[in-house]
Amino acid sequence: MPFPPDAEPMQLPRSETSVLVSASLLQISVPAYSKKETQAMDRNGFLCTRRLFLRRASAAGVLGTAALFTPGIFAEELALTPRQTEGPFYPDRLPLDTDNDLLIVNDATTPAVGTVTHLNGRILNRRGEPVRNAVVEIWQVDANGIYLHSSDPREPKRDNNFQGFGRFETGSKGEYYFRTIKPIPYVPRTAGHVHFKVRVKGQEPFTTQCYVKGAPGNERDFVLNAIRDPKARESVIVDFRPMENSRIGELSARFDIVLGFTPGA
Ligand SMILES: [Fe+2]
Asked: How far apart are CA 182 and CA 119, in angstroms?
């Protein structure tokens, strides 16, 4: 099911896409929940309707907020995001639901287990310009450390309420947004991570992974530490910050991806 649940699958209207992203990015300060709103929460305590979300965003004064990206502010080229292995667990059979809300599959009423995380960022080129119409895909293990993949030996024990994979197409500001869970380690990986594949027309798909800042397994993870350059390694480790006013401990994480090409060049 897309997020919010009554949104159109994958192709959210541009305006609503940016509303969602902006509200999440700006860590909106929202009024206390009414009793009715509280009753509308799902098991994770998350409000379930777009109307409520937009109303709260509007109340917080973020609708129509100017773009977070200002063209031309980058005097120098940005450091490229390091490419990392796709790994063996890109879903070999995509789920029926491939939208940007990994917590709810189709019309299910039971959400995935895990720490709710609002994961967002921008797809940029080396000049800092947003890349529009990039298809951003993510996949990650569930709260039991299991992938949506037939080669994962523990697949039968997977949390079927976790979508495991999601897609989002960027708009004019290059923004993407997912509602998912905080990634956790699994054998043999010691660092929780989210896999990314970014598809841009006319370019080879770009794969990388992002990691949780401060996670104890980061220093031993063989994929993360295969990035030799310390600055490049740091660039894929991001803060998973508690969201202000969240009563259920939601997190927000921002991961910008800089691609090494110049569209149209
Ligand atoms: Fe992985």
From this structure: 9
